[in-house]
Design brief:
heterodimer; A: mainly alpha; Four Helix Bundle (Hemerythrin (Met), subunit A); 12 helices; 68% helix; B: mainly alpha; 3 helices; 0% strand
Chain lengths: 314, 99
């Protein structure tokens, strides 16, 4: 890495710290949200610099894209004062506590990072890669060696969607103050591209950076764009039958894969010999679909209902 | 470096002033409409030159086409987003500068 690389990384690190400060301390909430979105984008760039394109894809799509859309639409529903979303911070007086506490946390984290085993587990993952059923180490870890972690992650997403839906009915979707014919056209034009990119990322996951999380995030973002462009969710029945199935498909399939191993005499989450590749692909498709619909379900900000939307007083 | 790489490098280099001028416009222009005008036009020309330059420099036709695809998608989304921001500003009663 040359001098230019060091300067770039230094500027990136400084910008991240500054944006994190802006996102938490800006007096105007809109300013804070925009700082958070830019923070997500620069974070994705930092992951690219750390040679982790998988995390970069997920960070850009979920951290900046989906979360950004969620925060902006939440902001639109808050009461404003003089057109600004003001936050009044109580000036803290406990600096005597916070500065040593922050310093101790930073020191502890530095020490923990310092003590990490030097080559990490990369060598061992590569040594067992042939047994995993896929050719990409990240996918092998996510859906084979540490599939339990993925199961729990999707469980957390499902829990978040259930919690949001249980808070009440979905408010009517936001529409632009002055409708533009370009937005529905953009939605119609780009949605096939979103589906194509998601399918490509999903397929690519077996041998290169990609997989269920980036694919699901891209597809979910496409669905959110369609909603913003005026499309309405196609299932309005009060039971949401098919919705519920797809929302829980990823978790159900991962659980089934885990338990099937135990029941047929293998270890928990052990795949049958020779069937690991197809099983991982199946799990990726199920998880990708679930993640896409879960992100969309989070964005609806409530349970979609048959009789239109909850009216929100302005 | 061979000729193709020189041409690629030159295209990337030509793209940089457009970014600089677009950013200058964003910082110095008086209202949201003129700022959008600077960003949506200058930056996209700069991005096109950088994308084509990097594609030419890579020496791979597939990579060049992928980078051009990225540029076209950026053109479509940036045109739409610029229009949406301007319409929202107009709907909220922000008058264009000088009217």
């Amino acid at each position: 890495m040359g001098v230019a690389g060091v300067i770039f990384d230094g500027l990136l690190a400084l910008a991240l710290v500054w944006l994190a400060w802006q996102a938490t301390r800006a007096a105007d909430l809109f300013h804070a949200v925009v700082s958070f979105i830019v923070f997500g984008l620069l974070m994705a760039l930092a992951w690219v610099r750390l040679e982790a394109p998988d995390i970069a894809l997920a960070e850009a799509a979920i951290g900046a894209g989906a979360t950004g859309a969620l925060l902006l639409s939440a902001l639109d529903r808050l009461a404003t004062r003089d057109g600004y979303h003001r936050v009044l911070y109580e000036p803290t007086t406990a600096w005597g506590f916070w500065i040593p506490a922050g310093g101790a946390l930073l020191g502890g984290l530095t020490l923990a990072a310092w003590k990490l085993p030097a080559p990490g587990l990369g060598e061992e993952v590569l040594a067992s890669l042939k047994l995993s059923g896929v050719d990409h180490p990240v996918t092998a870890v996510l859906l084979n060696f540490r599939a339990l972690d993925t199961l729990l992650e999707i469980g957390v997403l499902l829990l978040a969607a259930v919690t949001i839906w249980s808070l009440g009915r979905a408010p009517s979707p936001l529409v632009p103050a002055m409708p533009s014919p370009a937005l529905p056209a953009l939605g119609r034009l780009l949605f096939p591209v979103f589906v194509l990119v998601a399918a490509y990322l999903l397929w690519r996951g077996s041998h290169a950076p990609g997989g269920a999380f980036p694919a699901g995030a891209v597809l979910g973002a496409g669905a959110i764009l369609m909603l913003l462009a005026g499309a309405r969710p196609w299932i309005r029945s009060s039971e949401h039958g098919p919705w519920r199935w797809i929302l829980s498909l990823g978790l159900a399939m991962l659980l089934a894969a885990a338990v099937t191993g135990s029941l047929s005499g293998l270890a928990f989450f052990e795949y049958p010999r020779g069937a690991a590749g197809p099983m991982i692909l199946l799990l990726e498709v199920a998880a990708g679909l679930s993640i896409a619909l879960l992100l969309f379900a989070l964005y609806l900000r409530g349970e979609p209902c048959e009789h239109g939307y909850r009216e929100v007083g302005s | 470096m061979n000729t193709v790489q020189w041409i690629g490098g030159l295209l990337v280099f030509l793209g940089i002033p457009f970014f600089l001028l677009g950013t200058l416009g964003l910082l110095r222009f008086p209202d949201v409409y003129t700022r959008l005008h600077a960003l949506a036009k200058a930056d996209n020309v700069g991005l096109g030159l950088v994308c084509i330059g990097l594609g030419v420099q890579s020496g791979s036709v597939a990579l060049l086409l992928k980078l051009i695809l990225i540029w076209v998608l950026m053109l479509i989304s940036s045109a739409t987003v610029a229009g949406l921001i301007a319409r929202t500003a107009l709907a909220r009663g922000l008058r264009p500068w000088g009217t």
